[in-house]
Specification:
With 288 residues, this protein is α/β, with parallel strands linked by helices. The protein contains twelve helices and eleven strands. Strands 3, 4, 5, 6, 9, 10 and 11 form a seven-stranded mixed sheet that branches.
Length: 288
């Protein structure tokens, strides 16, 4: 594709994706901080270069054509390659650039801070962006090249991704000290969380797959509710031991096949591994 050679042409691809992601020219122009005419002209330029229409126009609505869908499949990868090439050059000279990290909340709260400190000590000019979410959502964003690497719980296999085990966590059953009710609800993160899936697997093995589940969005919220007897949960042992609610909680060991769960660092196969990513991987692995 000869149109990828200049900054303006890279901007045209960015504009094309913005129209898709934002749902139209007007919204794309706002997200790109430019005027609508610039967005329109860049789309037209792409169409002229490729000799085909990228969108079908119906009034103000735009629908991707077959050619547009084909370009969209490759555009994110092309832009990601451009971004990584730029970062690799920057890092080779001054150890600067941007690293976008996705992580589970438990990992972000307890494992990630010391790893980021080690990262900054070797790459003090790097710009860090950290997003917390469920494992499922993080993988989706990694596949879309919206993150550079993610940390998730549990084994994972995908032909476009490279997964490396960096830690093994031990999950324990966590209850309030005064709670001896076997029918206490499960307190879990929302759908897509690896620890949630392992908790439901454990409960199913006990023959209670339909027990009430209460969803919360934060680690502190879950352990706080468990501490006053509103539910029980499965959580990494060291997370419970580090919690401010520790004195109000009791933990019980679980069968090894339920308790032991790996933490994986995952990167996209088509992206070059940046120096900073290798430094981060080493810093996390050293915590085991």
């Amino acid at each position: 594709m000869s149109f990828l050679g200049t900054t303006m042409e890279i901007q045209s691809l960015q504009t094309f994706l913005a129209v898709i992601d934002e749902g139209g020219v007007q919204a794309a122009s706002k997200s790109l901080h430019t005027v609508q005419s610039n967005v329109t002209s860049r789309i037209k330029r792409l169409e002229q270069e490729l000799g085909t229409e990228l969108f079908y126009r119906s009034g103000r609505r735009l629908e991707l054509s077959r050619s547009g869908r084909e370009l969209a499949k490759h555009a994110r990868e092309l832009l990601q390659m451009h971004k990584h090439a730029h970062q690799a050059v920057q890092q080779s000279n001054s150890l600067t650039g941007e690293l976008r990290i996705g992580t589970m909340e438990t990992f972000a709260s307890f494992r990630l801070p010391s790893a980021l400190k080690a990262l900054r000590s070797q790459h003090n000019g790097i710009k860090l962006r950290v997003e917390t979410n469920t494992s499922e959502h993080l993988i989706e964003k990694l596949l879309q090249h919206k993150l550079d690497c993610v940390f998730i719980g549990g084994q994972f296999d995908h032909e476009d991704l490279i997964a490396t085990q960096v830690l093994i966590e031990e999950l324990v059953l966590v209850r309030a000290a005064a709670d001896d009710n076997p029918d206490t609800p499960l307190m879990l993160f929302r759908e897509g969380c690896a620890y949630r899936n392992r908790s439901l697997q454990w409960h199913s093995r006990l023959g209670r797959p339909t027990q009430e589940v209460i969803e919360l969005g934060t680690l502190d919220g879950i352990l706080g509710c468990v501490s006053v007897g509103l539910g029980m949960t499965l959580m990494p042992k060291w997370v419970v031991e580090s919690s401010r609610f520790r004195s109000e909680l009791v933990v019980e060991k679980l069968p090894e096949e339920i308790a032991m769960i790996p933490t994986m660092m995952i990167c996209h196969r088509r992206d070059a591994e940046l120096q900073a990513m290798q430094t981060l991987k080493t810093a996390v692995t050293c915590q085991q």
